[in-house]
Amino acid sequence: MPHVATLRLNQFRSHARSLIETEGRSVAIWGPNGAGKTNILEAVSLLSPGRGLRRATPAELARQPQALGWRVQARIEGARAHDIVTGAEGEASRTVRIDDKAAPQTALARLMGVVWLVPAMDRLWTEGASERRRFLDRMTLSFAPDHAEHVLRYEKAMRERNRLLRDQVRDPGWYAALEEQMARAGAEIIAARLDTVTRLAAAQADAATSFPTATLTLTDPDGAPETADDLATRFADGRGRDLAAGRSLTGPHRADLDAVFAAKGVPARAASTGEQKALLISLVLANARALKAARDAAPVLLLDEVAAHLDADRRTALYAEIAALGAQAWMTGTGPDLFSEVGNHTLNLEVTESNGESHIATH
Fold first, then answer.
1. Looking at the predicted structure, is the pLDDT value of residue 344 above 80?
2. What is the DSSP letter of 57?
């Protein structure tokens, strides 16, 4: 299975220079809060397209106060080995090199899947729809690397359309081209999201798991359009309402992801905090299983503080499912006791901090 064999951090967050050699094993990382554990997971998340698990700008990733730029280097191994270098200088955009050749970020998705669960997601079911769309789009991107490009095209055209709406432009000719772009990209977005929901449902239905199943539904306040032509018609018909509001009130940017705790028939937003966490873990595991089914290769799992809210039996179940997937997992926690059920084949790292710099010790 694809995995990170070597990870080097240079001037990245709290890590001046850090080297981790995994030998293909999963990685358990512990240490006090603020020591730099999550920074390691964030570095691994940048081996996939996008802004990583914290959605940070390139400038925010540089070690402070030096702000000299940063670099993450990794060797990933699987069916083939690849060397990845990504980083940024100053305020510049993030660059990617694969096997010493410049590459777009989307190329990373074709080398290795990366799926993560972080504490900020614990509020997923109680926050606004935008966070759930982002969660769904991240999973969708793992199946369809072009999904990010469709989203960017849609959002760019929508920003231009919204500018016209705010300026109260009424000439339909100004809108037609933008709405066609939105409709084409929007139809791709909707189709990819629906495909992801279908894949997740199948991965949950076929799984022997100790975690609860979530019944997922992609919803749209105005009903889901089926084609690009349907979307284009909706945009044109809605111009009057949109002019009054000064923004686009319909389209895939208004969709939401609904989840129901299947065993109880309770909406995820009404479930207990523990049940919501278990549902999230279930979906991340389903994402990993579905990716393995699609690619014949499990993704790398990044699980930040995931064990802190699980009892020993649930931790044992989680670690067993990761092992059954054959996936490399990078996990963080405050102490080694949280990983006592994981087995003897994990690389154990302790992270400490002194004078604003993280230090890694192998145990």
1. no
2. -
